[in-house]
Design a protein that fits this description.
- 65% of the residues lie in helices and 0% in strands.
- It has one domain (11-80).
- The chain has 81 residues and is mostly helical.
- It starts with 10 loop residues before the first helix and ends with a helix.
């Protein structure tokens, strides 16, 4: 004999409300994470640009004085392309 499962009144509504709150919290969390990552990447880019201006980062290797380990033609061709 099977007993039918009787749910308390308002159960379905409560369950839907809880699921909605969970979805809302998940979206807010994802937006917060995305915001923080964008700020991080922006900061990293700003730091790299600052170093390019002050320390010459981004120059082609052929424009830098050759270091002993970069004297081979193969290495110079790879890094200067």
């Amino acid at each position: 004999m099977q007993k039918s499962l009787l749910l308390p009144s308002g159960y379905h509504e409560l369950l839907q409300e809880i699921k909605g709150r969970i979805r809302t919290a998940q979206v807010r969390a994802a937006l917060a994470v995305n915001r923080e990552l964008v700020l991080l990447y922006w900061s990293i880019g700003r730091d790299i640009l600052a170093r390019q201006g002050t320390e010459g980062w981004g120059m082609r290797l052929s424009e830098l004085p050759l270091l002993p380990h970069t004297r081979s033609t193969k290495v110079r061709r790879y890094w200067s392309s």
